[in-house]
Amino acid sequence: HDMRTLMLAIFNIAIPLGGSVNDFNLSIISNRLLCSGLGYIVGSSVAKALGHWRWALRVTPPLGIICVVLLTVIVKEPARGSADGAETTKQESWVSDVSKILRVKSFVFTTLGFTWVAFAIGSLAWHGPKFLQIAQAGKETEANVSLYFGIITCVSGLLGVLLGSEIARRYRKRNPRGDPIVCGIAVLLGIP
Fold first, then answer.
1. What is the pLDDT of residue 174?
2. 37-50 vs 54-74: helix axis angle to the nearest 10?
3. Whether 165 and 100 share a structural domain
4. Are residues 59 and 6 in the same domain?
5. Mean pLDDT across the stretch 108-134?
6. Domain range enclosing 46
7. Which of 45, 58, 80, 144 is a Cys-bridge partner for 140, taking CB atoms 3.0 to 4.6 Å apart?
8. How many CB atoms lie within 10 A of CB 168?
9. Please, are residues 44 and 152 in contact by the beta-carbon 8 Å criterion?
């Protein structure tokens, strides 16, 4: 239980801190894609250092290749369900699998919830830096605004994941469904 919460926390840190290496820097400068806080920071730094936002696109593909090679070489995929003590059953048809999974309410609601969160984060990533730049009446360059936005995203995301994980771990002692309840409350509190 605690290990699962820890692994979910580590996994969720990827949302505010790191994203897809190949697409995050494009979104930093041009505000076109869902991205991460580090993407804003790295992209704005590359744009400042090399003089144009396009250099962020030239720097990230080699980093993505390095990540793929490291993942392929270092990470060993465990057998499906082995961490939960599940036994593998015989393979069934795709229609049967989809039918069964759609009956799992927690999966359906989690998927819908995460989809809504992704839309909200995507709109913030798209409009946030430009809104901040306009609010400063053009005093700050887009690269500076992206840097500040990235720092805020990283710090708030890291604190949110760590605090939420610890609250969920403690609450789970009273309620075994602590993880999804804390996640749901956090998303509702984030709406305003």
1. 92
2. 130
3. yes
4. yes
5. 78
6. 1-82
7. 144
8. 24
9. no
Residues 113 and 186 in one domain: yes
Residues 117 and 16: beta-carbon distance below 8 Å: no
Q: Which residues contact 108 (CB under 8 A, 6 or more apart)?
A: 102
Q: What is the pLDDT of residues 79-88, one digit of tens each?
A: 766 666 666 6
Going by C-beta distance under 8 Å and a sequence separation of 6 or more, which residues neighbour residue 168?
A: 5, 178, 179, 181, 182, 183
Q: Where are the beta strands (DSSP E) in 57-152?
A: none
Would the CA dihedral through 24, 28, 30, 31 be positive or negative? Answer: positive
Give the pTM.
Answer: 0.54
If you write DSSP's letter for every residue of 4-72 in order, what string do you get? HHHHHHHHHHTTTT---HHHHHHHHHH--S---HHHHHHHHHHHHHHSSTHHHHHHHHHHHHHHHHHHH
88, part of any domain: no
Tokens of 186: 């956090």
> Torsion angle of alpha carbons 100, 120, 163, 113, nearest 10°?
-20
Q: How many CB atoms lie within 10 A of CB 136?
A: 13
**Amino acid in position 158:** L
Judgement on whether residues 121 and 182 belong to the same structural domain of the protein:
yes
